[in-house]
Amino acid sequence: MDDAVPGIAEGLNAGMWSVGLALSGNEFGAQWQEYQRMDDAEVARRRTRATEKLYAAGAHYVIDTLAELPGVVAAINRRLAAGERP
């Protein structure tokens, strides 16, 4: 898991499932204090931009925050059990 394009590339190069972090990551481009002052439209614009960049870099999944990671790990485990590999 990483919050920037180079980290996604590193995960892919290592043969790992790569998970991008959009809302609370570098690609979102704001500190917590800035985020708290943003209106919904700006948050949505930045989230969309970050998500697109991370998927374009090859991320298998993109989540907003770490709180969503357990669900992604469960999905990856199901895929592994079915014989899928990254």
From TrEMBL:
What are the UniProt keywords, alphabetically?
A: Hydrolase, Metal-binding
Gene Ontology molecular function, alphabetical: metal ion binding; phosphonoacetaldehyde hydrolase activity
Q: Where is the signal peptide?
A: none
| Hydrolase keyword on record | yes
Top-rank EC class of the record's enzyme: hydrolase
* Gene3D superfamilies named in the record: HAD superfamily/HAD-like
Q: What is its EC number?
A: 3.11.1.1
Q: Does the keyword Hydrolase apply?
A: yes
What is the name listed in the Swiss-Prot or TrEMBL entry for this protein? Phosphonoacetaldehyde hydrolase
Task: Report the source organism.
Answer: Serratia rubidaea
Query: In the UniProt record, what gene is named as encoding this protein?
Result: phnX_2
